[in-house]
Prior knowledge:
The protein has 376 residues and is of the alpha/beta class. It has 2 domains: 14-205 and 336-373, Crotonobetainyl-coa:carnitine coa-transferase, domain 1 (Rossmann fold, 3-Layer(aba) Sandwich), CATH 3.40.50.10540; 242-321, 2-Layer Sandwich (formyl-coa transferase, domain 3), CATH 3.30.1540.10. Helix content is 31%, strand content 15%. It has 13 helices and 14 strands. Helix 1 crosses helix 7. The longest helix has 25 residues, at 171-195. The chain is elongated and about 75 Å long. Residues 1-5 have low confidence and may be disordered.
Amino acid sequence: MDGQTSMLPLDDVKVLDFSAQLPGPLATLILLEAGAEVIKVEPPAPGDILRIFPPKVGDESVNFAMLNRGKRSVSLDLKEPGAARGLDALIADADVLVEQFRPGVMDRLGLGYEAVRAINPKIIYCSITGYGQTGPKAGVAAHDLNYCADSGMLSLAADKDGAPVVPSALVADIGGGTYPAVMNILLALRKRDRHGVGCRLDIAMAENLFGFMYWAIGGGVGGRVWPRPGGEFLTGGSARYAIYRAADDRFIAAAPLEERFWSAFCDAIGLAIDLRDDSIDPEKTKAAVASIMRRRTAGEWMTAFEGRDVCCTIVATLAEAVVDPHFISRGVFKRTLAMRAGSVPALCVPLAPELRDAAVDGGFPDLGEANALLGR
């Protein structure tokens, strides 16, 4: 990218990305979309294991392509003696290094923080792990579901028999890993701008989930009342924040929390006056609402709600959501990702348009396509 003509916030930042699969690659994608140059360091074939995972467009992994759009790739076997020295020139020129190996792996490869800092004292070295670089669980193998379980988050989402439900989003990977990594990298760059020195960032996905549960933690440590799985105001215990089945077996997400919204909702569905004070018997009110909602189709309910502030929406399928006129009008999926078998929409990232590369079309790197950068 031409730094003389670009106005992007990170157009003078170079990133070495040793991460694979999701948390790190999504973090470096966000940095790239804000103008950074990202060089992905991969092992020999197949490289980042996500390259061979379905779903595929032709013979290429669409998920790998989405997460690595616009990056460059160098490939080498870091387990070979002295291989890490082939990266010295890139390290010396980098502003940020991102890795998500288990604690100690980068040290064994000769690329630990102290070794890298000796080459480049100004580098921001970001390590993303499940449990952090220290502590009893630091070396434990785990995935998103395990981090949600360990943090207590999984217990808050339960079905009717009290069993936790597998989350539909990778909350720990993205909310606990990707976003905190980006946030801390940007803050560290700002600190370096002022003081001239880099630092190491220890991003632990499990512990970063606690902020999402501020309300539950507040209840526990403040009132000494820990939340009941599936039974609290925001986890299914209130008629004002619930999912209701309609006559056509579509679902309505109803969230008329505040009194003015609740009153409008009750008027719209014709809830009996004696049930509207849901503090008296929450379960009775919720059951009554559920019974009423079964009398009409989801579309009929949305017609009945039209023009009223009731905070109700049909539960869209993902296929419906990606063609929603609102999201289309906002240009959420206007960017494209070029693949050999055709183009697909590029992954949406949470950047304001003013801070993002204006290029609409882009590709992703072949394994090792930038190996000419090594050892120079």
